[in-house]
Amino acid sequence: MAVDPKLGIYRPAVPAGDLGARVEAFSARCREHGLSVTPQRRAIMRALLASEDHPRAEDVYDAVRAEHPTISLATVHRTLETLCQIGEARKVTPLHHSARYDGNLSPHHHLVCVGCLRVLDVEAPQFDELLGSQKWLGDHEVVGGSVEIYVRCRSCRQQTSD
Hints:
This protein is an alpha+beta fold.
């Protein structure tokens, strides 16, 4: 779904055609780190990549249980943390009481609704330019970053205007 080019472009979940390739890359990364590539890990990665809203572990668990009814929530939590450790996911936690996870590893920023707490990816080249031009902040070397923009989504705005 496109938005004003000055703001950027919302990106949906990984397109279905790219999902298989991304899961295969995930499998290779697991092997590089000496991790078994289990059907449960692959299912968790697919659920994360298919999500459009930076799911909580509980959301991933709900999505995976249909295919793997004996999987535990603890396994999903551990797997998501492992994905973060090996660079296959990022933890996104603004305004949340529980961790949210992002399978989109390309450089991007986040819109966070202060009403419903939904997190959306947004491409904003102007932020990339600003962050890319800063090599140092004081005596701290800049190694990366992303911007979180707090918004009120259309749905929340409509609810408050009713």
